[in-house]
Design a protein that fits this description.
Elements lengths: L5 E2 L7 H19 L8 H5 L1 E6 L14 E6 L1 H10 L4 H9 L4 E4 L9 E4 L4 E6 L1 H20 L8 E8 L5 E8 L10 E5 L20 E2 L1 H6 L8 H20 L6 E8 L24 H4 L9 H15 L33 E4 L5 E11 L7 H11 L12 H15 L3 H13 L1
Bound molecules: adenosine-5'-triphosphate and calcium ion (2 copies).
Length: about 425
């Protein structure tokens, strides 16, 4: 059994924070969604709104379980971004707050950020440092413009920027973004690639204990792997990476990576239990109350009930096939209302292709993540110190122009159709 993340329940140290985050999101997102749509203005980018929640409630905010303050940033910009990224407003709210369940992936990076998955694994909440928060606000116009011009951008899709403040005055900033990995498919291998080799190695001997570990550049090179795309997908992919990297360079961003999850279609889904969320829609199945029922005594809202009824009706009317994936007892992919985008259009990912552009055996789930590190003072210091003992361009903290060039060069070098890769290997063996 593989458990992805720790369920955040009443006994979890971060239960109150998580509850407050979701309560705040529910309120501010409903609030902006209730208004008539309007085009964005300059002021929308700088907008911020403060709300106070308490157990009694007041004319502005509903009552909540705990006292806390909540701040919402640029709500109109994020509403427009969610639309651009093809999110259904009701679905977004449902996923995040229909049940107060999150799973926490205890700080997987060294930055100290916390990651929470929405109950259905569609969204990730990442806590960010104050500096990253200020930076996102500063670049929001450029980000918006980039998304407008590049609806298929591979850069993290930001859906909201908020802050909670506890009664003790601790401020926690966080973003809501897309989970690159699908709730409905096993990811057999994960890589976080930067195009640098120094310190970019997951110790192979620890892999046995942790088969799902995120591997890095050196592990990738050691495996002599490629991103298998034929000419058409190769062009699409590299053109987008290039445009995205140009933006990141322009904004003096660095330290980002290509996050890559590989689903091997020949292995399929076997050992993954992430998908509890879909149990509720299984024909004849009932919700797993033991896992999810006790979090917060709350009966489903009208909207939730209507949606569940809608899903069930689809099953009954056979609008969607009901056969479950035999190996995993899970619903077919048609259940996930997917927007047909270029890189997330093949079952939520981007399927490998051969030299003749025929489909291959794996689906890649990929995107450019961790894009809020500005090349500021801290990084300059790191560059200086690490640069003393390492060859200069291999240190991961190099200035943004060089970082982006190296990143793009590395990624371009990985993209080869299986046939091309085989020819290259043959050539090397001859030498
Ligand atoms: P650091 O700055 O030390 O690299 P961080 O706290 O900023 O760490 P990230 O690099 O953003 O964290 O992410 C760490 C890991 O979390 C990734 O390697 C990946 O496994 C997972 N992760 C982050 N963002 C996503 C995403 N959008 N979808 C799926 N997984 C993600
Ligand atoms: Ca990172
Ligand atoms: Ca980071």
């Amino acid at each position: 059994k593989v458990v992805v993340g720790t369920k955040v329940d009443h006994n979890h140290v971060n239960w109150v924070t998580a509850y407050n985050m979701l309560t705040g999101i529910r309120f501010v997102v409903s609030r902006v969604n209730a208004k008539m749509n309007k085009p964005l203005t300059d002021a929308d980018f700088d907008a911020k709104h403060k709300f106070s929640f308490d157990i009694t409630g007041n004319e502005l905010t509903p009552s909540a379980k705990y006292d806390f303050k909540f701040k919402d940033y640029s709500p109109w910009v994020f509403r427009h971004l969610r639309t651009k990224f093809g999110l259904d407003p009701a679905d977004y709210l449902m996923s995040l707050t229909s049940k107060y369940i999150l799973s926490e992936l205890g700080s997987p990076g060294k930055s100290g950020s916390f990651f929470y998955f929405s109950r259905d694994y569609k969204y990730i909440i990442k806590t960010i440092h104050h500096g990253e928060h200020l930076f996102l606000r500063k670049i929001l116009r450029d980000y918006w413009k980039h998304v407008e011009e590049n609806p298929d951008t591979l850069i993290s899709q930001f859906y909201g920027l908020h802050r909670v403040k506890t009664p003790f005055g601790r401020k926690i900033h966080f973003v809501v973004m897309n989970n690159l990995f699908p709730p409905h498919r096993d990811i057999h291998q994960t890589f976080d690639l930067k195009g640098s080799t120094i310190g970019r190695d997951f110790k192979e001997e620890n892999l046995a204990d942790n088969p799902r570990a995120t591997l890095k550049d050196l592990n990738w090179l050691r495996r002599d792997m490629n991103l298998n795309f034929g000419p058409h997908k190769k062009d699409l992919f590299l053109q987008q990476v290039e445009r995205d990297v140009k933006l990141l360079q322009k904004l003096h961003i660095m330290d980002y990576s290509l996050l890559l999850g590989i689903h091997d279609l020949t292995r399929g889904n076997r050992d993954d239990i992430r998908n509890n969320a879909l149990k509720v829609f299984q024909p004849g199945g009932s919700e797993n109350d033991e896992l999810h029922g006790s979090m917060l005594q709350r009966t489903p809202s009208k909207m939730e009930k209507a949606r569940q009824a809608r899903e069930l009706r689809k099953i009954i009317n056979k609008e969607v096939p009901v056969s479950l994936d035999r190996t995993s007892n899970r619903l077919p992919d048609e259940f996930l209302e997917q927007k047909k985008t270029v890189f997330y259009g093949d079952n939520g990912g981007f399927r490998a292709t051969h030299e003749n552009d025929q489909p291959g055996d794996v689906i890649y789930y990929l995107g450019i993540i961790d894009c809020l590190t500005h090349y500021g003072f801290a990084k300059k210091a790191e560059h200086f110190w690490r640069g003393l003992s390492n060859p200069k361009d291999q240190v991961s903290a190099i200035p943004p122009q060089g970082y982006g060039d190296r990143f793009f060069k590395f990624i371009s070098g990985l993209v080869k159709s299986p046939e091309e890769a085989a020819r290259d290997r043959e050539m090397r063996e001859k030498v």
